[in-house]
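Subgroup meeting minutes
Present: P.N., E.W., G.H.
Scribe: E.W.

1. P.N. recapped why we're keeping a running log of single-chain structure predictions: easier to compare across weeks, and new members can see raw inputs and outputs side by side.
2. G.H. added today's entry (421 aa).
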Amino acid sequence: MNVLVFRNVLKRLRYDTLKQYLSSLAPTAVALVLQFVTFAVTARGLGIDSFGQYAAVLSVAAIAVEFVGWGGADLLVRAVARKPERFHSFFGNMLMLIGLTIIPVVLGALWIAAGPMKSEIPVTLLLAALTGEIVAARIAASVELIMVAHGHTTRASGVRLAMTLTRLIAALLYFSAAKSLQGWILVVLGQSILFGAALLVIAMRLYGSPVFMLQRSELAAGAAFSINQAARATQGNVDRVILARFSDASVLGAYAAGARILAIGLFPLQVITRLLYPNFFREGEFGLAATRRYALKCLPAMLATGLFASASVAAVAQVIPLVLGHDFAASRGAAMLLGLSLPLIAMQYLAADTLTGAGLQHIRAVIYGIAALIFGFLLAMGAYFAGVTGLIVAFLSAHALLMAVLWIIAFTWKDSEAAQR
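Output recorded in log:
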């Protein structure tokens, strides 16, 4: 990155915000390294065919998990940002919503994996894989947001670090003795349940016990948050679900490895977004104009982070064949091309949070819901007519289109129409 541009970015960031970001990024950077090692151990241990099958199931889980909890964690962040004393009741609301939604969501994900996706993994193992991934991801993300709501962003990054470290230990122990996909799925299920339970205990000890009270008046807002997140997850994961339908396991495995590098590149974006997210709600008390001003203030930092993430993905992609083996050589090109989407995604996050902070999460939900359908259609057409190349072109085009739509809506919507709370 040009040195002068980087200096200008630093000048426009408030010192305390930059300090928070860097302190949050440190454990996340360690987690990135550990996650890459875990991914490498898993991919080499399973082999390209089994890894491809497993990666497609993980993609279904990554989309499905956003429906678990019905946006309860986001509701908690918004409530605590405005009235901190409401934490305990919204903590209880979050846990109740997780309990009410997790079974139907897991069963829905199972139907997709076994049905339209036509996974070759037996149904019982599919159920175990989906349950483990969804439980771990939902509880970890929820506890992270609890910490973010209290301003403990560095502690929140530690949650991700701990989750990655425990998964790495499990992978090293298992693949040193076995190579079976079936065995690995069962190991992950056990690790996920134990880790999730430990996180909930830690959250209660740090911030207090939940008051179980279903916030019925917030269900519509929670649905909007959930749809937003699910649509965003769809954009980042539906490519592997679609490719599983149109390609063999080895092609899917090579592409999935490249896409996994892209997922690692999203971490810096998630750190800075998590840091800024509560501030959008505070600015939103003064209307959409205030969140617009805040978004413009944050734009240089977000763009710089997106460019840095893209460059990092390109650099890491160079070592894929060396780390994973010659079978994964095609993953290098896929990762580099997919990494071009990261600056676009960074800009999407900023415009989307501009709407959410001002109480327009329902508009954001509509945009993301429609975008998810368009993404699915474009990716399916690309994969059907041109295989992996067509899929990647469609992926980048769809992200560029969504970025443009979000910024146009965020800066042309009438401020008086923002739903103030």
